[in-house]
Amino acid sequence: MNLVAAIEWAEGYNRRGLYSPFGVGFHWLMAALMVFQLVHGGYLAWQPAGGDKYVGYQTHTQVGLTIMLLGALRFLWRSQVGAPKNVDEASLAGVGSRLLQAWFYFSFFALPVSGWVMWSTLPGDLPLSGAGVIPFPNLPFHQLSEGLQHRLMQGAATAHAWIVWITVLAIPGHAGAAVLHYLVKRDRVLPSMFDLNGPQKPGVLGAGPDAGP
Questions:
Q1: Using 50, 70 and 90 to split pLDDT, how confident is the model at 15?
Q2: Tell me, what's the pLDDT at 32?
Q3: What pLDDT score was predicted for residue 86?
Q4: d(Cα 85, Cα 88) in Å, to the nearest integer?
Q5: Residue 184: is its pLDDT beyond 90?
Q6: What angle do CA 53, 164, 162 make, to 5 degrees?
Q7: CA-to-CA separations, 157 to 116, 117, 153, in angstroms, rounded
Q8: Would you list the DSSP string of 67-130?
Q9: How far is CA 86 from CA 154, 189, 201, in A?
């Protein structure tokens, strides 16, 4: 399947008010990685200083950089394949959904970059990579004065903490809104993330002709 065929196939799901398996896969993979990062980061914060904590932060930063790479791929995918129109974009729910989505995309990049900045101000030579494949060299902060490096570390750490806490609040808000749509509004917002049988249904690219009007 080439890219054009993949896009057409995914748009077939959107016409039924569903996300494609690619979109669903991106969503749940990144959700799992974000939850892991939040738990792992909290765990590391309570660990005593030492070599194990340093290696732990290397792993934490590398997972974050992997999230950034996946976020870039997801953004490119969404630029080609839209989302199903299950919510009125002009409604309060539609505006809230767009704001939450914008925040999550922002966090996919801001958290890894702030972590990369912090890592680059630490002494040591452990390498970083994204997805264990793409190398990320330390940012060239070693040329700066110790005072400036310290301010960079503190600024990045403060930004990182604020983004983490806002994201911690945004996740249950996002999940709660999906449950509200399912239990109260009884619309297709939540089922659109689970129904992967789109191409077998009439009216979808690759399916047979509609049996009815």
A1: confident
A2: 95
A3: 67
A4: 7
A5: no
A6: 110
A7: 10, 9, 6
A8: HHHHHHHHHHHHHHS-----S-TTSHHHHHHHHHHHHHHHHHHHHHHHHHHHHHTSS-----EE
A9: 42, 6, 18
